[in-house]
Amino acid sequence: MDDIALAEVTRGGRVESLHHGRIAVMDDTGRVVRALGAIDKPIFPRSTVKALLALPLVETGAADRLGLADAELALACASHGGEIRHAETAASMLAKAGQGLTCLECGAHWPTYDAAAHALAATGAQPTALHNNCSGKHAGLICLSIDQSLDPAGYIDPGHEAQRQVTEALVMATSVPHNETNRGLDGCSMPTYAIPLAALATGFARFGTGRNFSSGHASAAARLRSAVASDPFMVAGSGRFDTTLMAHFGNRIFCKMGAEGVMVASLPDLGLGVAIKTDDGANRAAEVALAALLLDLGALLWNDTDREVLAGLAHQVMKNWNGREVGTLRAAGKG
Amino acid sequence: MDDIALAEVTRGGRVESLHHGRIAVMDDTGRVVRALGAIDKPIFPRSTVKALLALPLVETGAADRLGLADAELALACASHGGEIRHAETAASMLAKAGQGLTCLECGAHWPTYDAAAHALAATGAQPTALHNNCSGKHAGLICLSIDQSLDPAGYIDPGHEAQRQVTEALVMATSVPHNETNRGLDGCSMPTYAIPLAALATGFARFGTGRNFSSGHASAAARLRSAVASDPFMVAGSGRFDTTLMAHFGNRIFCKMGAEGVMVASLPDLGLGVAIKTDDGANRAAEVALAALLLDLGALLWNDTDREVLAGLAHQVMKNWNGREVGTLRAAGKG
Question: Which domain of life is it from (chains A, B) (predicted)?
Fold first, then answer.
């Protein structure tokens, strides 16, 4: 099936750029509820699956034994902007595991949130691996390793026992194989596995409902959703789509972005999971497409404020450096 | 005609993202040499036309009377990264016009080159309009205004005499109307006019050869091309495609990026102009598509080193934060 127009950028009353992609809406049994475009074609989920990768941390009891707080569990699911609380929370996860910064194998980069990068630079400091947007996920694998008396070194490699356990969680959630035949390497040096968009959506339907999950997975998923809902700043940060959406909807919607234009969402009340991939890898398009889809899917659920929040995210006015309106970023065909 | 696949991003041996778009190759008479996709459809050229907007600054004699150096003329054509030399050169243009920073109407933003932003933040300073990537273009309009004893205030507005003159240069170069019917507002608050991709390419064929230009435009174009070739850092900056390409090719290729995935090039030796627009607005794709096109168009012109430079830009290895190879960004279908 052909991919569809997801989002467009307008200027001067004309469409300046147009993004195509695919949308899968599935229930937790793996039934297709809505399919727009080639939903069986494999895509790399990238950071969208961080919450699934965090399931063993909770399910094994490691999180409780190490005393991880909600903020820390939310950070384990995060692609954060490297703001001060993000870096401090990653450090506290490592401290609870009795480890330090050098244990992180994600590499260092400047905070992706520009204001945080400028504030860090103003102190004369350089970024560390704590500022890497994936530091919470990595700290989570280190916690999982330490709790099982495993040497955390090499936790990013497919052969490491902790990595094997988090990969197994992906297999259980999505019901598709994750092995060397569909493996790619992510920006933070952990594997990412190409799977059908439909399977990714099914995984997040299950993450939302807890059905067709093991009972351990189901309670771990509920705990993680609750942690993220209680501190949505931790999962992304200032001005970011995921944080904005969950700050309003709380436990009613879980969503997570991934690099190269991937978005997932769980809608527990509807028993649905969503996965979106833009063909060109643009995250701006996946975001507005998700907001527009949620408006539609939850038509009977949302109150006026809910609809206003979603409509604002699905149709964004773009302003220039002088604050003058130059155009819009909006769901395609909703002009 | 359908748009074509221009560039792809690969990971783990699979295509992760794919960019479509259009390519127009024209000669200076407006004859189509190569058309891939809908080249008659209007697009916003954005910053690609800065060198055309600088023609009146040179042609009227303003640049000579004010004593503008090559670096300053190159900056007038630039979308720069806000590095120290860029900001200093914008300030020196203003000083030669007897004006100061407050005269700039582009708005302030942090340097787009991250290292320059971090270095600026480390000094405790905030960015000014000098760091705006368009500050050289704006300083050029201020110089043009002052030289003609015009009040520069409002030089960004279509009704200002200096703005009228630079818009007239666009009309002469591209042979298509620029008025309120195709006007949009750019990020720096100057107008940008939607014109066919083919007309944009024709304009840059003329910019390269000087033919089908007035003699004044022709000599101004030659002067600007020479200025950019002598100091290609000024037109973009560290690590940027335009600078890298022109640092190698000098006066043999002029190229310029524009926001939302536009690229133009002049090939004086072949008498050709090129314009590329990605449908989705991705600049990474326009860059690799231009490199691949230049490899092909200039097959009989380039020496081995030329081909090596272009091939490296048309097929870029992507590495992660640990320096490990994760995939490629490359021209589509050249895998």
Answer: Bacteria
